[in-house]
């Protein structure tokens, strides 16, 4: 792989977009226009300037980078995930995700409040200034149905990697969505209730939902995290019809952050 610094540099540029805050059920709370500039200032230094058009953010946020904290990992495309390294019930807990194409970025923050109940999402849709790159339509059930094949790469905090192939079969049966996922010699079958733009996995050890969101986005995470159970936080993005990426942050039963996985999947049969 490229170095983490070279992967980070895939995000250079000026990005215009919005910060959309949503409730755990996907209801709009706030939508704030934004302008983010990430520039290379020296061979191993970069500067981020974020302006948000809201009285709550009267001054730009400015950050400089020369190294990265251990809770942040980048992929070669520029995709990244940063967040808590240890689950806790005594304070805020969460993660930020980012997926990158040539002229678009999709970012998402998933946050849990003290006590480990889901608090809010922030959906951040950005395009390079001057590119006029369009947003995708809102994600639908029909976008997901079919057989998908893909490749995944997993990064660990010590920077070693694993790669594997996967196949998913997703079908709708009445008001339920059935998914069979095969990877690395394992097969996992899940069943979700379809409730509007929410998919609810009520029979899993943790109450988990997937939200279908604007711009082809999806948020997959527990509604509540319980000590002693492993869990995954995930963001998905339908880049174009039949092509989807997902980025996942995995925690073990002890609440330790284990790894981050980027999966690129293509629908091979409807």
Task: Summarize the structure in words.
With 270 residues, the protein is mostly beta strands. The chain has one domain (4-269): Calycin beta-barrel core domain (Lipocalin, Beta Barrel). It has helices at 4-8, 141-144, and strands at residues 13-22, 28-42, 45-52, 61-65, 72-74, 80-83, 93-100, 104-112, 118-128, 146-155, 161-173, 176-183, 186-195, 198-201, 208-212, 217-222, 231-240, 243-251, 257-269. The strands form two sheets. It has a ten-stranded antiparallel barrel. A nine-stranded antiparallel beta sheet has the order 4-3-2-1-9-8-7-6-5. A hairpin with a 5-residue loop joins strand 5 (72-74) and strand 6 (80-83). The model has no long low-confidence stretch (mean pLDDT 96).
Provide a brief overview of the structure.
Helices cover 3% and strands 60% of the residues. It is mainly beta and 270 residues long.
Which labels suit this protein?
19 strands, ten-stranded antiparallel barrel, 2 helices, mainly beta, globular, Lipocalin, nine-stranded antiparallel beta sheet, 60% strand, 270 residues
N-to-C span: 33 Å
Q: Main sheet, how many strands, which sense, barrel?
A: 10 strands, antiparallel, barrel
User: What is the SS-derived class?
Assistant: mainly beta
> Helicity, in percent?
under 10%
């Amino acid at each position: 792989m490229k170095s983490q610094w070279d992967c980070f540099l895939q995000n250079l540029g000026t990005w215009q977009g919005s910060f959309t805050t949503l409730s755990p059920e996907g209801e709009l709370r706030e939508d704030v226009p934004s302008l983010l500039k990430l520039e290379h200032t020296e061979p191993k230094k970069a500067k981020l300037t974020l302006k948000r058009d809201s009285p709550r953010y009267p001054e730009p946020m400015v950050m400089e980078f020369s190294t990265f904290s251990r809770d942040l990992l980048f992929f070669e495309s520029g995709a990244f995930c940063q967040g808590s390294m240890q689950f806790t019930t005594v304070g805020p807990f969460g993660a930020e995700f980012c997926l990158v194409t040539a002229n678009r970025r999709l970012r998402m923050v998933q946050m849990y409040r003290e006590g480990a109940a889901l608090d809010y999402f922030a959906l951040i849709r950005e395009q390079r200034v001057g590119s006029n790159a369009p947003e995708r339509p809102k994600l639908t059930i029909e976008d997901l149905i079919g057989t998908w094949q893909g490749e995944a790469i997993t990064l660990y905090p010590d920077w070693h990697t694993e790669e594997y192939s996967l196949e998913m079969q997703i079908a709708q049966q009445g008001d339920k969505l059935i998914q069979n996922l095969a990877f690395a010699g394992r097969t996992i079958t899940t069943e979700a209730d379809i409730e509007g733009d929410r998919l609810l996995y009520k029979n899993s050890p943790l109450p988990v939902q997937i939200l279908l969101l604007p711009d082809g986005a999806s948020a997959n995470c527990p509604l509540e995290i319980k000590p002693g159970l492993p869990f995954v936080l995930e963001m998905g993005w339908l880049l174009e019809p039949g092509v989807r990426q997902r980025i996942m942050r995995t925690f073990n039963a002890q609440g330790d952050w284990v790894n981050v996985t980027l999966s690129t999947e293509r629908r091979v049969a409807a």
